[in-house]
Design brief:
Blueprint (H helix, E strand, L loop, with lengths): L21 E7 L2 E10 L14 E4 L1 E2 L8 H8 L4 E7 L6 H12 L4 E5 L2 E8 L8 E8 L2 H10 L3 E5 L6 E4 L1 H16 L4 H27 L1 E4 L2 E4 L1 E5 L8 E8 L4 E5 L8 E6 L3 H9 L6 E7 L3 H11 L11 H4 E3 L8 H4 L10 E5 L13 E3 L19 H28 L44 H8 L8 H7 L31 H13 L4 E10 L2 E10 L2 E8 L2 H24 L40 H17 L7 E7 L9 E7 L2 E8 L2 H18 L3 H4 L9
Parallel strand pairs: 1-3, 9-17, 9-19, 17-18, 19-20
Antiparallel strand pairs: 1-2, 2-5, 4-6, 5-8, 6-7, 7-8, 10-16, 11-12, 13-14, 14-15, 15-16, 21-22, 22-23, 24-25, 25-26
Helix pairs in contact: 1-3, 4-5, 6-10, 10-13, 13-14, 15-16
């Protein structure tokens, strides 16, 4: 329901002549609408009027808006773009102009004057003085208003995905061989046995997938766990002038992998693609219940045919991007140049401030777009295959929750602030009376999501193919790439990867044998995940107060309309994280019993320790940090959980291959500073590491990490020691 608006013509006598006004004739097409007085917003040369030939020629009316008046849309996509004001010159009114004015006012339309690549929107405004039709004239890039009106009425934003190392990792035979060779050279000069073992395991994973790809190239089949799988000919719908294609494809859902051939006529263009876990969860959110929450785009530095095929594999039913839009929605950027939302939306599909980005790198984006980028850890399935699922909330589920929070915050600001104030504006108001318009960047909690491996492991070799290699392979040219070329064309390794925005105070990042980093944002996303699993609504309500020179933000968390936490801070993000952390503390006793079985832990007693973890934040425990997860010292709960986890570990392993707990280090010193270090080993390989001021707690940390690893591992050297029946 639209808010009530004032009557369009409220006033009495017309106002007296104002300086700087210009009289112009108005037309709708070729129909004369009479004369109008035009008043520039700015004085002097800056107030040059935008109408050519000193006439106002309306070409068409904008699409009708269901709930958003035109000024609210224009303020969102072109803030403070009012160029001039105009009003009908004389009484009696020209009937055609009066009808145009009432149509625009009542049906939430604007009258559009096209000037080159710019649109001038005449917005019908109510007046408390004038008795004649009055308009504000706003300028906007051509086509942007028409696309934005539908999005804002549907409560829809845009989301832009990167592909390589964000959603997938893809390799050709050459990229497999380059990485194996590179790792072999590093092993030759490495003295640390732990690093050598890690690189050896990584090489084995590369070799295993390389052999599958080679078999696909040679025979159009693969042998997966003793089962021969043949290709399926998948029809690729033509795009533009492209001819119809039948691509040979093999899908291996148990491996979360797909083999495809970019050019069906050239076998060397065969690619082994690993899909990032939880992509289906994110994709389902974007299309749930037929509601369009986001318009989807892709921006990548890859070659175009490759990018189109990868997206087809990710969105096989074309639910996220229709075939009619795929050509303009998949945007390929030249390697080495900056990505830009302005370039992604060059056809006027969306305004950058209504778009969020999901990418594994920040600085590849134009600086003005970086506040709208949600940075995810680079997908590294060969370097650390267990890392992706080590956290309670997978990376792409975190991205889904971030998108949900952004959309909720954006439209709450739009409805409660901008829309409300726009309905109160009159023709006589000034430009500065316009309300602030929401921006996606305002609701993106900054975080450092750089991949954090173990303290010993070197940074991984960048996964997948670079754009330069893809382009050469697709042209069917066999080529030799020297080491210098490889290093210059691949992505930055993680040790030189750019630091992401906003290092929030109190960040807790813990190395967990290749697990992903834990950041304050996780408090917010875990809270959203709890709400989703419990089918309860989670809301963040924020207020701002100013005292002198300082500004204080306050945030309250409502769980099913009940206040469960609050926080304050110098920034909205700081207050939100604090509120989410306190909410988790308050919810913990009720929620622990619900989530414990999901983590594979038999919860015997949830009432004995208020700080024993809530199933989602088991890894977010730092003895030095002031977090909501305090370490329970020697409680019965810890002992019970440890016993349960050890039983599950032993059930996973064959009888003669029990796991071993090794007490690695015990730091000397006072009881306050004493630390216990435990690690879990199987057949000489470390599965998990735990550190704590309590011996049982450290052992529990190590055991739970080992259990997660064993449930998700695809390492054949580990799987041969496990029972054939999996626990996951």
């Amino acid at each position: 329901m639209a808010m009530p608006r004032p009557s369009p013509l409220l006033g009495g006598a017309s106002s007296s002549a104002a300086p700087g006004r210009v009289t112009m004739r108005m037309f709708h097409g070729d129909v004369s609408l009479g004369e109008a007085e035009v008043f520039p917003i700015k004085p002097g040369p800056e107030g040059t009027l935008p109408f050519p030939s000193n006439e106002i020629r309306i070409s068409h009316l904008s699409p009708a808006s269901e709930r958003c008046p035109p000024l609210s849309i224009l303020q969102t996509i072109a803030p403070f773009s009012v160029r001039c004001k105009l009003q009908a010159k004389t009484l009696p009114l020209n009937p055609s102009l009066h009808r145009l004015y009432l149509t625009c006012f009542n049906e939430y339309k604007s009258a559009v004057v096209v000037v080159g690549d710019e649109e001038l929107h005449l917005v019908a405004m109510p007046s408390k003085v004038e008795k004649v039709p009055c308009f504000w004239c706003c300028s906007v890039r051509a086509g942007l208003y028409a696309s934005s009106v539908g999005m804002l009425n549907l409560r829809c934003l845009a989301i832009v995905f990167d592909l390589d190392e964000t959603l997938i990792v893809a390799n050709t035979m050459r990229s497999f061989e380059s990485r194996i060779e590179n790792l072999s050279h590093r092993m030759d000069v490495e003295d640390d046995p732990g690093r050598v073992a890690g690189m050896s395991a990584e090489i084995k994973r590369y070799i295993e997938d390389r052999e599958l790809l080679k078999e696909f190239i040679d025979t159009d089949t693969v042998t997966d766990n003793g089962r021969i799988v043949g290709t399926q000919k998948e029809e690729v719908q033509p795009i533009g002038t492209q001819e119809r294609l039948l691509r040979p494809v093999i899908r291996l859902p148990e491996r979360n992998a797909i083999l495809t051939r970019i050019n069906p006529e050239i076998r060397d263009t065969s690619v082994f693609v690993k899909l990032r876990p939880a992509w289906e969860d994110l994709r389902s959110y974007l299309t749930a219940k037929g509601r369009k929450r986001f318009e989807v785009y892709v921006c990548t530095m890859a070659e175009r045919d490759y990018a189109l095929e990868i997206w087809r594999l990710l969105d096989p039913e074309a639910n996220l991007i229709s075939l009619n839009n795929i050509s303009e929605r998949v945007v390929c950027v030249k390697a080495g140049s900056k990505k830009s939302l302005q370039h992604v939306f060059k056809n006027g599909g969306c305004h950058p401030k209504m778009a969020m980005v999901i990418d594994d790198r920040l600085q590849v984006w134009d600086e003005k777009d970086q506040p709208r980028v949600h940075v995810v850890p680079a997908y590294a399935p060969y370097y650390a295959p267990q890392a992706e699922m080590a956290n309670a909330v997978p990376v792409l589920c975190v991205a889904r929750n971030v998108a949900c929070n952004i959309r909720g915050g954006f439209f709450r600001e739009f409805d409660e602030n901008l829309l409300k104030k726009v309905f109160e504006l009159l023709y006589e108001n000034e430009l500065l009376d316009l309300p602030y318009a929401p921006d996606v960047g305002d609701y993106l909690v900054c975080e450092d999501t750089n991949f954090v491996p173990t303290n010993k492991d070197p940074a991984p070799i960048p996964e997948g193919m670079s754009g330069a290699e893809v382009e050469k392979r697709l042209n069917g040219r066999a080529h030799q790439v020297d080491q210098k070329q490889i290093s210059s064309s691949t992505r930055l390794s993680d040790d030189v990867r750019v630091t992401t925005r906003g290092n929030l105070a109190g960040s807790n990042v813990q190395s967990n044998g290749g697990s992903l980093p834990i950041t304050p944002l996780l408090f917010v996303t875990v809270l959203q995940e709890i709400g989703r699993l419990c089918n309860s609504k989670v809301e963040f309500r924020s207020t701002v107060s100013s005292t002198g020179k300082s500004t204080q933000f306050s945030v309250e968390v409502l769980f099913s309309n009940e206040k469960v936490g609050s926080g304050t801070g110098k920034t909205r993000e700081e207050a939100q994280v604090q509120a989410a952390e306190k909410a988790l503390q308050n919810l913990q006793s009720n929620y622990l019993s619900f989530v414990a079985p999901m983590a594979g832990v038999l919860n015997k007693d949830t009432s004995k320790s208020p700080g024993g973890g809530n199933g989602f934040l088991e890894d977010d425990i730092d003895s030095d940090g002031d977090t909501s997860m305090k370490e329970p010292s020697g409680s019965t709960l810890i002992v019970d959980r440890l016993s349960s986890v050890i039983s599950l570990l032993r059930e996973l392993c064959v009888e003669d291959q029990h796991v071993v707990f090794r007490d690695e280090v015990q730091n000397p010193g006072s009881a306050i500073n004493e630390e216990y270090h435990f690690q879990v080993e199987l057949a000489g390989q470390i599965l998990g590491i735990g550190i704590g001021a309590n011996k049982d707690f450290a052992k529990l940390q190590a055991a739970e990490e080992a259990l997660r690893f064993l449930k998700t591992t695809t390492d054949p050297q580990i799987k041969k020691h496990l029972r054939p029946i999996r626990c996951s």
